[in-house]
Specification:
The chain is mostly helical. It has a 3-stranded mixed beta sheet. Strand 2 and strand 3 form a beta hairpin. Helix 1 runs antiparallel to helix 6 and helix 3 packs across helix 5. The protein is elongated. 23% of the residues are buried. The model has no long low-confidence stretch (mean pLDDT 81).
């Protein structure tokens, strides 16, 4: 009678499960360690924002052609930055009025690119309301939420790889 032995190691299912658990653990440790120290530099954030800005504008019909409305958004945005802690941040904020008049939205990219759709601007009744929306988006940049999303994406990528 010939007895077969099964090979245990990286090629076996038990070995793959152990390897997947190790990859998952490393991903989790990296993510939770990055919550205290953000591994994405300010320069990387700025570069990512500048790189993504044209694509985001294109997705919303491009920039709004009304230069007067754009100047108003710029002025209000500069006022918010000047009168807040955002002034001490290493970001050069840029404000973009998007041509999309159907979508009611505002958003910010990492590094200081802030967007407001014409659809949302039309819904706002005062400079104070525009300032409130822009301040909210500036807050995302100052809190480095974009970098946090990058760290979460890396975690998801690591866990997906482990699976």
């Amino acid at each position: 009678m010939v007895r077969r032995t099964t090979r245990r190691g990286p090629g076996s299912s038990k070995g793959r499960i152990i390897l997947a658990l190790i990859v998952a653990a490393i991903s989790l440790i990296t993510y939770f360690g990055a919550r205290e120290y953000n591994p994405v530099t300010v320069q990387q954030e700025v570069a990512l924002g500048l790189q993504a800005a044209p694509q985001m504008a294109a997705q919303h019909g491009g920039l709004h052609p009304d230069q007067e409305a754009q100047a108003l958004v710029d002025e209000i945005g500069r006022d918010v930055v000047t009168n807040s802690s955002a002034l001490q941040m290493p970001y050069e904020f840029e404000f973009h009025l998007l041509a999309d008049d159907q979508t009611v939205n505002a958003f910010a990219l990492p590094g200081g690119q802030v967007f407001l759709t014409a659809g949302l601007l039309r819904q706002l009744d005062s400079r104070a309301q525009v300032a409130g929306v822009l301040a909210h988006e500036i807050g995302h940049v100052v809190a480095r939420h974009g970098a946090e999303h990058i760290a979460k994406a890396r975690l998801t990528e690591g866990l997906t790889g482990a699976a």
